[in-house]
Amino acid sequence: MKKYSDMTLAERQTEYAAVKAAFEAKKTLGLQLNMARGKPGTDQLDMVTEMCNILVTHDDFVSDGIDSRNYGNVDGLPAAKKLFAELLGCKPAQVFVGGNASLQLMFTMIAMAYSHGLLHSEKPWKELEKVKWLCPAPGYDRHFKVSQYFGMELLTVPMTADGPDMDLVEELVKDPAVKGIWNVPKYSNPEGVVYSDETIRRMAALKPAAPDFMLMWDNAYCIHEFDCEFVPFADILALCEENGNADMVYEFASTSKVTFPGAGVGVMAASEANLAYVKPLINIQTIGFDKINQLRHVKYLQDKEHTLALMKRHAAILSPKFHAVLSALDAEIAPLGIADWKRPVGGYFVSLDAMPGTAKRTLALCKEAGVTMTGAGATFPYGIDPNDSNIRIAPTMPPVAELEQAIAVLCLCLRMSALEKLGI
Amino acid sequence: MKKYSDMTLAERQTEYAAVKAAFEAKKTLGLQLNMARGKPGTDQLDMVTEMCNILVTHDDFVSDGIDSRNYGNVDGLPAAKKLFAELLGCKPAQVFVGGNASLQLMFTMIAMAYSHGLLHSEKPWKELEKVKWLCPAPGYDRHFKVSQYFGMELLTVPMTADGPDMDLVEELVKDPAVKGIWNVPKYSNPEGVVYSDETIRRMAALKPAAPDFMLMWDNAYCIHEFDCEFVPFADILALCEENGNADMVYEFASTSKVTFPGAGVGVMAASEANLAYVKPLINIQTIGFDKINQLRHVKYLQDKEHTLALMKRHAAILSPKFHAVLSALDAEIAPLGIADWKRPVGGYFVSLDAMPGTAKRTLALCKEAGVTMTGAGATFPYGIDPNDSNIRIAPTMPPVAELEQAIAVLCLCLRMSALEKLGI
Predict the structure, then answer these.
(1) Residues B208, B250: one domain?
(2) Please, which pLDDT band fits residue A342 given cuts at 50, 70 and 90?
(3) B293 and B313 assigned to the same domain
(4) Which of A172, A294, B252, B408 has the most CB atoms within 10 Å of its CB?
(5) Which residues in chain A are closer than 8 Å to B140, comparing Cβ atoms?
(6) Which residues 131-150 of chain B have a CB within 8 Å of chain A?
(7) Is residue B63 pLDDT above 90, yes or no?
(8) How far apart are CA B236 and CA B242, in angstroms?
(9) How much is the ipTM here?
(10) Does residue B52 sit within a domain?
């Protein structure tokens, strides 16, 4: 195969005709394939479903003398705090165990800053003329949308192989209107970047002008290696504390991709001072989260060792799916020189950069052939990719056979849109 | 026994000495009894615990083709909507099924009005100089606290035997700053009042000046009869619609006192137009609520008939507890003429009005003797009972034997504080 950029017009036309014919053939199959969202596959869910029946007798429902079935304990069961503290490497007293969605805890914290202010806020953010927020991109669309919901101005920070561009971050936080930054520090969404030690150190040592700057640390994939051994990761809470920033950081995690996406447990880790401020305010909206489900998780996951063993079993299911994507791209696209992609070893996505100006067209073609992908631009603030290039591939949900079909379609669409861009 | 008000000073002094001696004797028992919160008892929880293991096989977790274990369906499983629509008497399309706490849905709706405004809002409430809210009192402290959280001015509306004073409500809603009213229309918290048909009709027909007035209809005890057959109740959504107020009403309910207080299912019912507005905004904070738990409830409760049968079994446990409270009050307090109380046939509380100016003192004495009660004033806006009279008794949690001890202590404390008030 020849690089498309090296082809003559005539060669491109011949190639386009062939690719288009293959594409039209795919269309006749009436495919309905989905690589849009980072959903675990059914086999992963079946694997953990036994946990639903782990609590049976009266005594099973009691933990540290607390009846998990009744009201109370807004910050979660002590046993659940202990489990998540071990997984995150922080202290149990720094853990707030919530409901089934860590996103809801993130939203709750920003909503609190908005209506009431945080521990070190001078005033509630709703009273500020302008609130700006740093969005490393490509990043997670749902993060950006929470910031948008509260009317913030989103500032894009480019991602590098080591994490967000820290020179830029350090510069931007000198503006007191900059109130926070989103991070997925391990296996970032979508690129699978693991922040380097240097990036983490600089994050913890930030000196923001805003006294209530929020270092949002969404450690969504903290134990989600699929192609390597567990990679130990810094305790951001301790690092921030060492740098005099104990109350700057809010870490989040969940079992959405450990147990159940719809019925896992979400947690927040923050300084004890922050939690003391936060608890009575969260208590206004709820008497407590689902402690039975917390206890199911405690009994099923047990500790870090057992949890990592479970993650190995997830990895055994996930790894072939990622390899199927990467193999197809290596075989079908690499020789043509029309796209680059990351080779993640953890997380839930493969991030692909198509030829600039072709992402939207590629995904429109995919849709035409029955393959649903994350919308073009979704990984950028306001849903606008300035290069119209980034495509997020979510290969975890479909079985391998379906995935191979879907990725074959994607490859054809990448080729068509590249040829159209180059001229045919 | 003689009425305290008919006693001479000397008689009161003799009586006080006797009551105080009995009180001091109770103190030596080192009691630790709690009648503070409307918590179901352990026997009630044990009764329903089998539901935790009702989903076992792969297929059990699939409902209408939806895998309850995975992401999605922010407004809940269709089967759960159907169940709650049947219980509330509304349409499935009017139901939003949430997480474990209906309070969180109420909070979410008011937070939404605050930051974004509702369907018919002219602007977000945070931009308004003043927001006022009607609080029928005595009422539910957690309702009042949500309003306070968002900086509202709380206006007290006296409760009558038929519900809130509707003449006053109709007058107050002429003020465009009045944006809503809290209601627990069936077995109100704490008085157990069932709103009369006339009250409900007038509520549904309100003509508030505010276009985004919220009729908050917390039907927390919609099927919670403990001393009579199920009492059919009007569908407030249909009534509001008939009165041209389709989008004014937000109804809430939960299974917190049907299945598990910590792990039930909370729902909101509202017009389809309201839900269409609300869904994408709630979707910003969560991808979806716990659908596995929704499905457990669907399979366990099945339908209205089965659910009402379960409520009969709850009633069999609860009824003796309420009778223990009422019998003690009838025997010990009624002849003395120092308090009045309601005789509820549903709900979770007995509301007692002590001699004005003695509620705080009574509860302080209870605490001294090891009996924890809901704080005096809690049932009024800002936690201030203007008469220092209302006491909320929550008899559901303690076993009957403990409850009898606790209520005996309460009776002694009521007598002491009344005698102190009358002069000794």
Answers:
(1) yes
(2) very high
(3) no
(4) A294
(5) none
(6) 142, 145-146, 149-150
(7) yes
(8) 10
(9) 0.97
(10) no
